Amino acid sequence: MFHYFANPTRFLRLARAIEPWALWLMLATLAAGLWYALFSSPADYQQGHTVRIMYIHVPSAWMALFCYVAMAIMSAVSLIWKHPLADVAAKATAPIGAAFTFLALVTGSLWGKPMWGTWWVWDARLTSVLVLFFLYLGYMALQNAFDDPSRGARAAAILALVGAVNVPIIKFSVDWWNTLHQPASVVRMDGPTIHASMLTPLLLMAVAFKLYYVWLVLVRMRRELMAARLRALRHRQAGT
Amino acid sequence: MPLFEGTDLDCVRGERLVFEGVRFALDAGGALVLTGANGSGKSTLLRLMAGLLRPARGLIRWDGSDIADGPGSFAAAVQYVGHADAIKPALGVAENVAFWASLRGAPATNVAGALDAFGIAHLARLPARYLSAGQRRRTNLARLLASPARLWLLDEPTTALDADSAARLARVIARHRAGGGMVVVSTHTELGLDGAASLDLSALQMAAS
Amino acid sequence: MPLFEGTDLDCVRGERLVFEGVRFALDAGGALVLTGANGSGKSTLLRLMAGLLRPARGLIRWDGSDIADGPGSFAAAVQYVGHADAIKPALGVAENVAFWASLRGAPATNVAGALDAFGIAHLARLPARYLSAGQRRRTNLARLLASPARLWLLDEPTTALDADSAARLARVIARHRAGGGMVVVSTHTELGLDGAASLDLSALQMAAS
Amino acid sequence: MAVLRRELALVHRQGVDSAMVIAFFVIAVVLFPFGVGPEPNVLARIGPGVIWVAALLAAMLSMERLFQSDYDDGSLELLVLAPSALEMTVAAKILVHWLTTGLPLIVAAPLLAVMMNMPTDVFPVLLATLALGTPTLSLIGAVGAALVLGARRGGVLLSLLVLPLFIPVLIFAVGAVDAAAADLPTKAQLLILGGLLTGAMALSPWAAAAALRQAVE
Amino acid sequence: MAVLRRELALVHRQGVDSAMVIAFFVIAVVLFPFGVGPEPNVLARIGPGVIWVAALLAAMLSMERLFQSDYDDGSLELLVLAPSALEMTVAAKILVHWLTTGLPLIVAAPLLAVMMNMPTDVFPVLLATLALGTPTLSLIGAVGAALVLGARRGGVLLSLLVLPLFIPVLIFAVGAVDAAAADLPTKAQLLILGGLLTGAMALSPWAAAAALRQAVE
Ligand code: HEM
Ligand SMILES: Nc1ncnc2c1ncn2[C@@H]1O[C@H](COP(=O)(O)OP(=O)(O)OP(=O)(O)O)[C@@H](O)[C@H]1O
Ligand SMILES: Nc1ncnc2c1ncn2[C@@H]1O[C@H](COP(=O)(O)OP(=O)(O)OP(=O)(O)O)[C@@H](O)[C@H]1O
Ligand SMILES: [Mg+2]
Ligand SMILES: [Mg+2]
Q: In what order do the strands lie in the sheet with B182-186?
């Protein structure tokens, strides 16, 4: 029976090899990014020092979207090709994405107070991000709600795919509706429109966040695989 | 007077008369096999005997007193195994059986032996959600041994059982009767109970109509 | 190449391996009887054959093409009767059967004959909530005749049936096979199917371990 | 359309369902004056929100059973196996759900609006939002109901999955009614509600069918 | 106390239930700002009402399944037949229901009160009303849950039966919080809530047990 629960040995080996690199690179870019962000980049001529919230807010907002897209893609892979690792990866991604979304919400709302004079408005961007956060929570709840883990994984995968319609809504909400929130200035068709002195730390922070994700997702996947192996062992001992 | 008896029982379900004038009597060590075509009223009679239904007419007496007369010694003396399984998928097999035993005040030490008697000792710690139809039924039957009761009411107990388990059940019933227990069982197949009385509900219906 | 065949089937349920290396083949007019102890995987194999479950390894082919390859001719060719009844208590017996027939595109005129074949024509207008266990099962089996299908998958179909109905079922199956139909049936009792192949899942498990 | 006929027959045979949904809706709305106190201007202010939140909860509550009984009694397996497309079956079930729960809400809404002291000239907009919004609720809810089949505490889980997706409907619907109350144009919000409905119609039967297929595994 | 142990084991084994109830409670409360608009003074005004209505709906939603699974799988028949008193069994189930749904609500309430902009000095009163009120909800709800066993669309029917009985609890609880907000004495309302709780404790296990007995016929 080993071929199904067989340890994806190759994956485990690869993961163990990548993890330290990801961790150290992440720490290095994070340190550089923070230094630029806090000391080397200028304060905005309108916003003053509050602009520095951007270096957390924007990368975490990007990560919130990135994690969801990754989760949806892996869900599709697991539904269509039934690749067992895809399930594990999607499952490992969800809480990370939820945490980044939470971070984007909190920093955004901290930023909103000085900029817009309120913590929260019900505009399209903010509302759709909140929906994204709830989607993450629903995904995790659904996954744990079944007696049979593989059933939970399949149901949650479908939810992830359905929820994917929210992603373009978040991305383009600022263009489709006139919102308080400002439109894209980095990721756009005609190239970035912000100054290099702000772009550098922003990109550094974005890379650091990505690396953090890579490291954490690998660690979580390894842990999940161990747990699955343990379960299989217990089933075998339980008889039949 | 027999220990367990019913006299002139009529039963109405959903405004329809299921049977009338049924009578039975059972003494220590006795067995009663209910047979009859589908819909002749076997399950209905068993529910009457358990006290889940009330007869429209007639009396069922345990040890001389009407079983409908509130909680008496009867509740402690009877165990009922119906079509439904009463098994919680989230709990282990042994936990399921142990719960019903402790609810009836029996010690948890009986459980292992009960599982063993039905050949499911190796499944004891498996969550019940993983059981097949026959394994579920055996778990359900293990309840009978986990807490002692004089009277067993079994509704088609061999459903979903393989031949080996059906033989085990026959042995378990024989031992129960040898110890003074009684059993009423409905069935469509041959159970192999020695010296059992039998009540054919189809024949009764013919006679009535 | 046989009309319906499975090769090297492994099945995993709830992270547990149920069986491995099962193979079967069935041709027009053929019958396959699944036997084996409780928990040996009969119901699981039937669900695989119906396409409700996917095998972890191996292929099931109908008329040469994999049944997992989207909706093909297979869906129209197969009828499955599982442990559950699929009967709505609020609808009448005939209405219940007629719904499943019309869902499969069969005319409603078949229904009366189907009920008659299982001896429940007199119950046609009764709401299904009043049925006994055996009457429900017969209603469920009547589906088979109400809309024609080449392949019948029956999971312990004689459960709760009285002797008379079991004989009716055997006749119905024989007629179906004589017309070129096929049947796969799991059972713990003797069904009396002539010239049926049989697959003992318990024996298979022994051999594997 | 055998499914449509059976579902309608079931609803008809089982009688009082729609009446119950209306009753729930009314009771939930009536609870608010109890909870908030009967000051007319506060009530009028929160009126559209309360009516819509109640509609949402009513839809969710009645949603839970959409596939549950079919799942429990084995009908679902047969529906999945049937040669007719599962997507159509699902669409028929959703349609019947809306006819028996959404439509009654629309009928009952004006009464509640009067109770909540809302000005009569916003009624047409309120009804328009309900007409566009409640089918969306049924469609989205069906996906959720299909996903939670067999889960523990399905009801609560369903609310977790579905309420966030209901939020956009709620916001734009209440936005439209509030705009109408302030004599502003409501076309934008109604268009968005229409868009949500179209999107849900396009996606939800497929998603729900996929969820049902994996539920019977 | 076998029942108590089994129920707790089931809850424990099935894991995230209480978390889900909290989540529902939070989402339902959060819906209101969506529906009503986020003006701080309006929110503070309707805060206690919204929190209590949400608590009520959360209790009701989780209530529905209290006896349902036992009914469906035949456990209920055995519980009725068992020699131990059915009333005690019912009381144990109600206790576990409260521990897993009522208690978490009390824990989550301060958070929501902050979100609704309620002044911090009414928190003790809010918590006191929840502590006295939520067990009453569990007790009343259990009777309703027992009564609707086997009914179609049990969920909606249950809400119809139970919500009217919940209203007195709602009124006095919100009354107490409002009084606290206005610096008035709250003892009277809290005493009434205590009285309702005592009455419910005395009556409900018997009523629920009687309802269960007739449900298995
Ligand atoms: C809770 C409130 C907020 C939320 C949920 C939120 C959400 C987001 C999201 C999801 C993105 C990524 C968009 C994309 O990839 O195209 C983003 C980007 C951004 N946000 Fe926010 N935001 C919030 C508040 C704010 C505030 C108050 C400001 C400052 C005025 C702000 C400024 C920005 C900027 C400058 C970007 C980068 C846009 C770009 O260059 O692509 N956000 N926000
Ligand atoms: N949903 C499920 N999840 C995980 N394992 C399951 C599931 N259903 C059944 N099993 C396991 O698969 C094995 C085969 O079950 P199956 O129901 O196919 O047996 P069966 O041969 O039909 O037995 P029976 O004669 O008792 O009906 C059993 O050991 C059972 O524990
Ligand atoms: N809940 C009910 N309400 C009304 N009538 C019922 C009910 N349950 C069963 N009946 C009717 O009572 C009669 C006897 O049913 P019962 O279940 O006792 O039959 P049975 O002998 O056990 O049959 P089987 O062999 O099929 O299990 C049947 O004709 C049935 O239609
Ligand atoms: Mg019977
Ligand atoms: Mg089986």
A: B78-81, B151-155, B182-186, B31-35, B197-200
- On the CB side of C33, CA atoms within 13 Å amount to 16
Task: Please state at what angle helix E123-147 crosses helix E86-97, rounded to 10 degrees.
Answer: 140
Interface contact flag, D156 E62, Cβ < 8 Å? yes
* pLDDT at residue number A140: 93
Share of chain A above pLDDT 70, in %: 89
pLDDT exceeds cutoff 90 at E89: no
Question: Which own/partner contact pairs does A70-76 have at CB distance under 8 Å and 24+ positions apart?
Answer: A70/A97, A71/A97, A71/A139, A71/A160, A72/A160, A72/A161, A72/A163, A72/A164, A72/A167, A75/A156, A75/A157, A75/A158, A75/A160, A75/A161, A76/A157, A76/A161
- What average pLDDT score do residues D169-189 get? 86
With 0-12 / 13-18 / 19 or more C-beta atoms within 10 angstroms meaning exposed / middle / buried, residue E162 is buried
Residue C137 C-alpha to ligand 3 middle, in angstroms? 12
DSSP annotation of B121 reads G
Pocket test for ligand 1, best of A50, A55, A56, A58 (most atoms within 8 A of CB): A58
Using the beta-carbon criterion (under 8 Å), do A162 and D143 form an inter-chain contact? yes
* Residue identifier of the C-alpha nearest atom 25 of ligand 3: B38
A171 vs D40, which has greater pLDDT?
A171
Backbone torsion region of residue A195, taken as left when φ is above 0, otherwise alpha when ψ lies between -120 and 50, otherwise beta? beta
Per-chain mean pLDDT for chain A: 84
Handedness of CA C114, C117, C120, C125 (dihedral sign): positive
Q: Can you read off the two tokens belonging to residue A154?
A: 């399949």
| Whether residue C180 has pLDDT greater than 70 | yes
Please give the pLDDT value at position E15: 47
Nearest-CA distance E80 → chain B (Å): 8
- Local structure of D202: helix, strand or coil: helix
Closest ligand, as measured to the CA of B18:
3
Residues forming beta bridges with residue C12, ordered by sequence position = C17
Neighbouring subunits of B (3+ Cβ pairs under 8 A): A, C, E
Judge whether A144 is closer than 8 Å to chain E, CB to CB: yes
Question: What is the per-residue pLDDT across D161-177, written as a single tens digit (0 to 9) for each?
Answer: 888 888 888 888 888 88
Mutate to test the pocket of ligand 1, among A107, A110, A111, A119 (most ligand atoms within 8 A of CB): A111
Neighbours of D39 (CB within 10 A): 12
What confidence score (pLDDT) does residue C192 get? 83
More confident residue, B60 or E6: B60
Q: What pLDDT was estimated at residue C208?
A: 55
Q: Which residues line ligand 1 (CB under 6 A)?
A: A 54, 57-58, 61-62, 65, 104-105, 108-109, 111-112, 115-116, 125-126, 129, 170-171, 181-182, 184-187
Q: Where are the beta strands (DSSP E) in chain B?
A: 4-13, 16-26, 31-35, 57-62, 65-66, 78-81, 151-155, 182-186, 197-200
CA dihedral E183, E184, E188, E193 (to 10 degrees): -40
Distance of CA C41 to the CA centre of its chain: 15
Ligand nearest, relative to CA of residue B93:
2
pLDDT tens readout for residues D46-60: 788 888 888 887 777
Residue D76 — pLDDT band, cuts 50, 70, 90? very high
Banded pLDDT at D15 (limits 50, 70, 90):
very low
State the CB neighbour count (10 A cutoff) for residue E121.
10
Any E CB within 8 A of A69 CB: no
D117-163 tens-digit pLDDT: 788 888 889 999 999 999 999 999 999 999 998 887 666 788 888 88
Give the gap in angstroms from C-alpha E28 to the nearest C-alpha of chain A.
13
Cα separation of B156 and B167, whole Å?
14
pLDDT at residue D105 in the model: 85
Its pTM stands at 0.86
